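Why does residue order matter? Because the sequence determines the fold. Keep that principle in mind as you read this record.
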Amino acid sequence: MSRYALVIGSQIEALTGVEHDTLRMREALRTRGFVVDVRFGDAATRSGILDGYDALIARSSAGDAAVIYYSGHGLYSVNSDPVDPVRIVQAIAPTDLRSGSDADFRGITAWELAIKLAQLTAKTRNVTVILDCCHAAQMTRDAAAHGAVARALPHPVRMGFRAHLAALERAYGKVALDPIGNPDVVRVVACGQTEAAFEHTNPAGRRAGVFTEALLEILNSVGDAPISWAALGDALRPRVMRRFALQRPDVEGPAERRLFSLAVEPRRGAVAVTRDGEQFRVGAGWITGASAGDVYGAMPLGSQAYDSARAIARLRIADAGPVTSIATLEHWHAGHAALPDDAVAIAIEVNAPRRPVAVIAPRAERTVIARAIEATRTLRIAAAPGARDALPGALPAAAQDDASPVATLRLAGHRLAIEDRAGPAFPPCRYPDELAGAIRHVVNLGVAQGVRELIGEHGLPAAGIEIAWGVVAAGDQRAMPDHGAVLGLGDRIYLRVANTGAALRYVHVCNVGVRGTVTLLTKQRAPAGVALSSGESVTLGEHHGRLVGLPLAWPTGLSLEGPPRLDEVFVFVMAQPVSLRALETDEHVPRSGPAAGAGLAAALAQLHDGLPRSLEGRAPREAFFVKRLSFALVPRTAAITRAVVRQRTGNCSS
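Structure:
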């Protein structure tokens, strides 16, 4: 069985990191035994890319592993021809894209990519597609602060596609206008269709795609370990989102497969455990969510849940590696004094992740501030800027994320400033008198980041729920895109959630405001979630049946002279009623005691208090999914109500 890869880099129109990404991906795949065909520059034209695709198809056979990687601009375009039956066109952008015309479209559409994938999977089912491209999105200071460029075309591409479709049908036969994902293809994508993927200057001073860089770091860390694409995606997603909150990568298709394989990696609660001298090696690492301080119970072979009556030993993780961790013995159970060769380990207590905080202060004051940060259980001091450059990919996830701390504390004299990714977020505090209050603000920013990392399906599919939002203007509703709208303080918004499925669902809506404050918008109406039976809907912004909209607000103490800031709305949909009051960031509400249980409410409470969460005797965790909406809020009293909706570019998964 052979391994073949097609690596494509289209470095056009403001992109400068594609070549670096392409060369690094080539070397990473070669290390894994792939024969790599690189198409870059003049070789990455439309014809060059399709020739490479045809060559990959020709050389592949049953059992071979095939990979297609693309780095460059993505196109999500509105068809300007009113006669064409299709309105939205998704494509990748070869280097000769601008040489085309209405009669000669030089992009490679999702339809054509789907046809090529079908030809490839007819030869081998072991196919992986990796796409680092994006749509045109509102550039915020989050991106500007990192010197970021969106992998999106800066100029619209609007043209008719009848000639293109006709050419495809002559070459391939009848073309499906709405191709669905090929069930044999694992698709690792940099972001959603309505989100942006960025390239930036990394700490080593090189331009690189944030997604590709994070993916390569993880691949380097795991080596040949047998992990699934789903596990890799779970590690990739927060790593990218901590650097750029607007970009959420995902893994589509048969994600339970092991990397570049058809073998399936089962998701079990039990992992391997072996004796390692005076310590123990547990088959869980930071890629699968383990961290230092977590407690595992050693159990007999075949166990899928922890049972103290049958437990062999209690182990605590001392050092979490990428896929395995070193643990120490806390005590033996029930007279055991040795670990059987076939024992397994099951998590019984997990710690909250500690999010990095940058501190700029004189040495003595930095020590005091660091002590206060470490006492929170949810925050830690960010590593020195050069720490992660020495050996990329070999450091724990925590060290890898330090380039994008949740906040920066900057001390000047006796004034302590709190800055988030968009700049100063709160009025300066008096130091040291108001240090505790400043730390509470930073904890809240960490909670907001934790909410962002919950986006997606967690045991509950999004199918059957329709979510729409927009602006109320003169009593009429004006729909807005999921992301990219620009609003002012004079605008009023509505949000509608409809249950189009057959099962009862419970809905919570929360707002993460422009400086990270988390507010549950549905708590007064239904603390355990708004119950929606089949065919029912709920609209936020209605008053006595009249659509009036919700007003937008700017926090007290945040400058009205500053740039726009990101405002976010999250919709939680659950299969059973659960209170999410623990989600809110209100420092006036005391939060004490351990976050008991394993449910979503307990996990959210742990974002605040950082106390260990016991999994012993746990009930199954609630199934849920989370949808995120966002817009840029301008601190002006006028109603702006404008959106970038005509032209979008996005990842082209087919």
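The longest helix spans residues 435-452.
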